[in-house]
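Ops channel
N.P.: pipeline sanity check, posting one input/output pair.
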């Protein structure tokens, strides 16, 4: 993975399982213990990486993190299988409450300080610290609720602007804490954009509400010296790609991972030979399919991705489902090892 990111030759495509809560399930750890204790999260990820032999390194992100840090509340589902944390009380439910929100101190905020703690622990195992860079719009969904935010986009755009600016300020404040602790040369930025997919909002919403904030985040973090960047376009973003390419500052070798709704080779061609592409084995297949189906899908992804000159990482189309079948994860890893050479 390090050689690929640096533009050096590699003997095969790396495989990144894009795994988080899956590792907790495999370790027999509750989601609550996993997300609330960074040392548990790191242990689960290290054990799963040793078990499956994937190439991606441990990473940690708390779902609903901005909500919790801005004063909202999260909770965990009860029941035998548990589940992801969910927002039990929004950080704001009116324009007046948005105005009253204060940008937190990341070293005192409950989610950000855990992210920093995980990075410090992983740093001891030579894992590059990972900064969450976006999307502000997705964090806004968590902070005020999807229906309310979509209503405000139409009726209260000034409130949405104010909320997104505060979230952007906080993303950059968290990034500053990472840079103070680790230095820009050691850090990677990871961004995911589920809300901006065409399944939920139009390209006009992306351009009106997300674009300027992403330009600011990228400009400021690149000026701070960060050169390693991974952008996950979750779902169909095909009508936003020209804005990413033409308006958003990018480092020399950005990595774009994509969902099954887009084509690896087409996205790679759009951004040029300098970018890395990753994806896009369907996540439903990894959970409910057979190993043979996973191998077939992974081989199709490799056939497309390996034709991109900038480099390719075999990955699920989105985060690995917590209850994916372990034999399917093994099949994904083994397919990269067996068929992941460009000359295969």
């Amino acid at each position: 993975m390090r050689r690929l990111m640096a533009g050096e030759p590699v003997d095969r495509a790396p495989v990144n399982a894009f795994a988080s809560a899956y590792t907790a399930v495999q370790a027999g750890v509750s989601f609550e213990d996993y997300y609330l204790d960074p040392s548990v999260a790191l242990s689960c990820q290290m054990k799963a990486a040793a078990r499956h032999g994937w190439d991606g390194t441990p990473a940690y992100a708390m779902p609903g993190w901005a909500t919790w840090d801005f004063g909202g509340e999260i909770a965990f589902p009860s029941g035998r299988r548990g589940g992801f944390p969910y927002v039990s009380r929004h950080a704001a439910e009116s324009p007046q409450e948005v105005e009253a929100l204060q940008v937190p101190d990341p070293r005192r905020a409950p989610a950000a300080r855990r992210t920093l703690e995980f990075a410090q622990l992983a740093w001891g195992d030579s894992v590059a610290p990972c900064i969450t860079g976006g999307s502000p719009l997705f964090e806004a969904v968590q902070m005020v609720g999807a229906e309310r935010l979509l209503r405000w986009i139409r009726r209260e755009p000034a409130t949405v602007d104010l909320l997104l600016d505060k979230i952007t300020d906080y993303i950059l404040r968290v990034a500053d804490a990472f840079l103070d602790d680790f230095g820009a040369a050691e850090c990677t930025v990871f961004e995911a954009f589920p809300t901006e997919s065409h399944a939920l909002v139009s390209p006009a919403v992306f351009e009106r509400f997300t674009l300027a904030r992403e330009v600011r985040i990228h400009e400021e973090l690149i000026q701070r010296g960060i050169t390693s960047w991974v952008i996950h376009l979750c779902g169909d973003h095909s009508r936003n790609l020209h804005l990413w390419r033409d308006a958003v500052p990018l480092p020399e070798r950005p990595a774009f991972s994509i969902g099954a709704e887009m084509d690896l080779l087409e996205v790679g061609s759009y951004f040029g030979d300098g970018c890395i592409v990753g994806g896009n084995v369907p996540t439903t297949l990894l959970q409910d399919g057979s190993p043979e189906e996973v191998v077939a899908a992974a081989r199709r992804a490799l056939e497309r991705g390996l034709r991109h000159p900038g480099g390719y990482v075999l990955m699920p189309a989105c985060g690995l489902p917590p209850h994916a079948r372990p034999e399917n994860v093994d099949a994904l890893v083994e397919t990269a090892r067996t068929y992941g050479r460009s000359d295969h």
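N.P.: looks fine end to end. The chain has a mean pLDDT of 95.
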